[in-house]
Amino acid sequence: MKLIKNKEFLQQIAHQIDVLNTLGGGISLPQVKVDKLEKGAIIWVAIPSVSPEAYQIALNHNQLTIMATHQSDADSEEAIPLFSQHFMLPPQVDLSRIDAVFADQELQVRLPYHTSVYQTRSIDIKY
């Protein structure tokens, strides 16, 4: 049995097989994980062989949408949807401080909570 040693060729063919599988009615299997932390939450999205340029994130009020598309090399206007998921964000998320980072083949969307959530204050009683 002869092994293919050209890693670039293997990456290209694996990506094409994944796209063809999706177009042929199959599914692309993204991995989505949400970690809730003390000061915020992180949404982790990993889709094999998808570049950071393929991801798009949209925020509409408290609805966060994460999607990924594959751009055709032949036609720059042709895009194949690979993944789309909506998240309803809770009121404690500070919408103005949401950010996203792509590292280690994963998209990380960081959702910090409002800092006022952690502050204790005294409330005066009126009489």
From the alpha carbons, calculate the radius of gyration and give it in angstroms. Answer: 20 Å
CATH topology value: Immunoglobulin-like
Number of strands: 7
Number of discrete domains: 1
Bin the helical content: 10-25%
CATH architecture: Sandwich
In short:
InterPro entries: A-crystallin/Hsp20_dom (IPR002068), HSP20-like_chaperone (IPR008978). The protein is about 15% helix and about 40% strand.
Question: What's the arrangement of secondary structure elements?
Answer:
Elements: H1 7-23, E1 31-36, E2 40-46, E3 55-60, E4 63-71, E5 79-88, E6 99-103, E7 106-112
Antiparallel strand pairs: 1-2, 2-7, 3-4, 4-5, 6-7
Written overview of the protein:
The chain is mainly beta and 127 residues long. The protein has a single domain, classed as Immunoglobulin-like, CATH 2.60.40.790. 13% of the residues lie in helices and 39% in strands. The protein has one helix and seven strands, in the order H-E-E-E-E-E-E-E. The chain has one helix at 7-23, and strands at 31-36, 40-46, 55-60, 63-71, 79-88, 99-103, 106-112. Strands 1-2-7-6 form a four-stranded antiparallel β-sheet, with no helix packed on it. The protein has a three-stranded antiparallel β-sheet with strand order 3-4-5. The longest helix has 17 residues, at 7-23. The radius of gyration is 20 Å and the shape is elongated. The N and C termini lie far apart (88 Å).
